[in-house]
Amino acid sequence: MAMTHRDELEAMSESGVIVDPTSDIDKLSEEDVVGIEAFLDFVRATVDDLIRQDLKPQIVHTSDLPEDIMGHEFQDPRLYPYNYCQTIVSRVWYYVMDIVGELYGSFINRPDLDPKIIHGIVAVKRLINSETGVFKQIEIETRGKFHNGLQVGAYWADVSPDALELDAERSPIQLSHVLESGIRQIETYAQVARIMRSHHQVEVYKNDVVPAYAPLFPFVTVGKGIRGSDSMPKFSTTTGPLMARDSLSDFLMVEQFLTDVGERRVGAGQMISGTPGEIGDRLRGALSFVSEKSLDHALALFRRKVKTDDSMAAFREYSELIGGMCGGANEGIRKQVLRSIGVDA
Asked: What integer pLDDT is reported at residue 294 of this predicted model?
């Protein structure tokens, strides 16, 4: 099946890995940097309006905000842009790609645009069209938190700094050299666990309850909030880029994480216990947060392991669990799970 335009765009930005800024990538002049900053500021303002329009039907006009707004994977439309960094960065990236692509001619000829913005549009288009140019979404660690942004050549562009703190004011976007920006590549599961503990205010354990599903859910997390639901154990995913990279080595990294004696164990009798069906109910809820692309990567290991005799024994033991997962997933994910275990979907 031929790739769509959106598929091609996603392929250009899917790895999330920081490209080595000391390698032979295109250099940007001072004028280029100023222009790109102005261009990204313009795009961010436009994207803000579009996202707020999308969120408006979801917003309940009431003052009873949740008592614990730091819950794992928590987003509240009333608090936008707080916790919406990935949404913002993705929309900015796609809009930039549209402007330097299909909309290029109409934008560079707009008389109402600041010349700096037009210069930035031209600079980004030149960068993207170059064999060594880099313009991609990246997921990183900064100030002990997960964050998303753009790598523009050898520069880091934080297009959603106001998504990290409540009531933060959005400052003008600035490009800083990757080596001087203070950002860190997310490279290990232990690093993800450390960030989750502070960023999401959860306790994090390695998933030794159902280790066969660790590529999908390497962690079990328990919220520290005061709401009852937040204190319930949850199966949790890792970052998409780390999962994608680990899939290339048949998830050797996650297997090493599970055997690391320095990482905290859940203890099946402590927090997550019950019949396979009851555990399956919890996995089913976690599965709803997994994108189909991430699921493709994670199921690669499961497809390989179910072909062996010992894994088939484990598979039969958890057949009820798998049924529970399939029953609660959306149709696309349900079919992928079934196909992965050899069932015609």
From this structure: 57
